[in-house]
TrEMBL record:
GO molecular function annotations of the record: magnesium ion binding; phosphatase activity
Protein name: Haloacid dehalogenase
A UniProt-annotated Pfam family: Hydrolase_3
PANTHER family: HAD SUPERFAMILY HYDROLASE-LIKE, TYPE 3, PHOSPHOSERINE PHOSPHATASE
NCBIfam families in the cross-refs: HAD-SF-IIB
GO cellular component: cytosol
PROSITE patterns named in the record: COF_1 (PS01228)
Annotated Gene3D superfamilies: 3.30.1240.10, HAD superfamily/HAD-like (3.40.50.1000)
Amino acid sequence: MYRLLVFDIDGTLLSDDRSLPQAVAHALAAARSHGFGVTLATGRELSEAEPVIRQVRPNAPVVGCNGALVYDPNTRRILWEAPISRGTALRLAGRLDELGWHYGVCGRDRIVVGRRHAWRLRLGPWRRLRNWTGLVYYVRWLWEWRRYVNLEVVPDVSRFLDTWDEPVMNFFVWEPAESVVRHLGPLAKEVSVDPVSPRSVHIMAPGVDKGTGVEVLAGLLGIGMDGVVVCGDQYNDLSMLRRAGLAVAVGNAPPEVQRQAAWVVPSNRENGAALLIHRLIRMTARSAEPAAADRSGAAD
């Protein structure tokens, strides 16, 4: 029996305008009322995940920072984390500076970027300004980042990290994964490079990805991975899709991601996550009927 439902945020739960559709919100509430654990596994750090956490109201801890931490939003405690070592983080920042690549660094609940990289953060949302949906996305993004996200723009990331007393959870780099691994050289053996899209990656501590975070979460809850359903849309969701009891991709996922899924539901634009939840609720109800009949017969 499936007990825990784990959803990616962007491109899975959220629609293309960065909103949580009402149908999905209602389905999440129904899942909670039917006894499922409901939570998120996201590449976002905690401050950026906060507005979605408030809307989803997970009843299980959240996997954040692309699998590098497990966080209880009710107690606001970090239950587990796997940061990049300080020495590796400093060497990595130095190498990325040498390469001249655009990158940022995530702590538990903040993003640090160099002054010359800050414009790159805004480029993705700007590229969406082609239609009404893109405009709504940009307005939501701007509002969320101004209200929730802890963004620190510094003159030099390497120097900042040298004195920063917070754990470094991951780097995000706007370069293809193969290029990153090739150019990092021996340093690539000290980290995990997890593609997010064909043009960007997260760099994590060795062996850390979303799948790792979901496994840790399931262990903390006393649930085997065969009782976990995961749903995602991007390349950094592959690690959790490959480990879950039931792997689900939304219809807007790339073909490579869909091929790793046991089920493919409609896209985020068609409330695929809601349809998945209702299907699981029906399955659970059907499986409960024979057990109820057996108990009734025993009573007779």
